[in-house]
Amino acid sequence: MVRQEKRAPMCSLHSVPHNVDHCLVCARSEFEGLLEKKPTEDDVTNYHMDLIAGLANMRQS
Question: For this protein, what is any one GO molecular function term (predicted)?
Fold first, then answer.
């Protein structure tokens, strides 16, 4: 009986996955919950304040 060596997936040897299926799993694990979380009122207010400040900085440039 020949024992087969277990090999690490190629994507674990690189900084980014190379297999399409591994890319999908990686992306899902990275962004899981981000699009499912409902923003709070403070999140929306902070976003708008940052947007207004950014636009003001662009106009001054």
Answer: ubiquitin-like modifier activating enzyme activity
Residues with catalytic roles: 11
User: What is the pTM (predicted TM-score) of this model?
Assistant: 0.40
Contact 11, 18 (CB under 8 A): yes
What pLDDT digit, counting tens, does each position of 19-38 carry? 788 888 878 877 877 777 78
DSSP 19: S
- Structural Rg of the chain based on CA atoms: 22
| Closest to 10 measured CA to CA, from 2, 20, 1 | 20
User: Domain extents for the chain?
Assistant: 20-58
Locate all alpha helices (DSSP H) within the chain, ordered by sequence: 10-13, 20-31, 41-60
